[in-house]
């Protein structure tokens, strides 16, 4: 006989029933970018009740209401979902690279265009580097789950 907490589709207060978490690559990119630009507190939130297959959605940490005695959502740091995460390009870094290029004359318009290109390249690199598994930090220890990247 199968333990009910392991049965597919059965909701539980116990997050250890989670086997896989689906995330959209757009949510991962958006959360990382928001945190890189302004330390926005963006996370990917897994909301109870828990099941073997869950979805983690973009959320701002601290935006929850009162959950009373029920299980709390799990917040996943978007940085944990990206392997070999590239640094977010800053306007200053873009300007330095542009001014250091002997074949290109600096202008504000060229700086803006080049920075937009660098940010889009960063976004693409993040989309390509979503991990296959992640460790969730739970109250009673860590729990590894599979990550399914959507989009």
Q: How would you describe this protein?
A:
The chain is α/β, with parallel strands linked by helices and 151 residues long. The chain folds into two domains: 1-82 and 130-151, no CATH class; 86-128, no CATH class. It has three helices and six strands. It has helices at 25-38, 91-100, 108-128, and strands spanning 20-24, 42-46, 53-60, 74-76, 133-138, 141-150. A six-stranded mixed sheet has the order 4-2-3-1-6-5. β2 (42-46) and β3 (53-60) form a beta hairpin. α2 crosses α3. The longest helix has 21 residues, at 108-128. The relative contact order is 0.21. Residues 1-6 have low confidence and may be disordered. Pfam families: DUF8009. Residues 12-151 form the DUF8009 domain. Residues 96-115 have a biased composition (Basic and acidic residues). InterPro entries: DUF8009. Residues 60-115 are annotated as: Disordered.
Q: What is the end-to-end distance?
A: 37 Å
Neighbour order of strands in the largest sheet: 4-2-3-1-6-5
Determine the number of helices (DSSP H or I, runs of at least 4 residues).
3
Q: What's the helical proportion of residues?
A: 25-40%
Task: Summarize the main sheet.
Answer: 6 strands, mixed
| Radius of gyration over C-alpha positions, nearest whole angstrom | 20 Å
InterPro entries: DUF8009 (IPR058322)
Region (Disordered): 60-115
Protein name: DUF8009 domain-containing protein
Organism: Salinirubrum litoreum
């Amino acid at each position: 006989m199968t333990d009910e907490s392991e049965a597919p589709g059965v909701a539980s207060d116990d997050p250890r029933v989670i086997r896989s978490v689906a995330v959209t690559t757009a949510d991962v990119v958006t959360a990382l970018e928001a945190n890189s630009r302004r330390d926005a507190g963006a996370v990917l939130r897994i909301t109870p009740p828990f099941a073997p297959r869950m979805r983690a959605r973009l959320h701002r940490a601290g935006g929850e209401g009162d959950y009373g005695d029920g299980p709390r959502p799990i917040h996943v740091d978007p940085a944990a979902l990206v392997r070999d995460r590239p640094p977010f390009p800053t306007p200053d870094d873009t300007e330095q690279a542009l001014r250091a290029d002997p074949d290109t004359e600096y202008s504000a318009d060229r700086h803006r265009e080049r920075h937009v290109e660098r940010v889009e390249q960063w976004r693409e690199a993040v989309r390509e580097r979503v991990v296959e598994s992640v460790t969730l930090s739970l109250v009673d220890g860590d729990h590894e789950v599979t990550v399914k990247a959507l989009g």
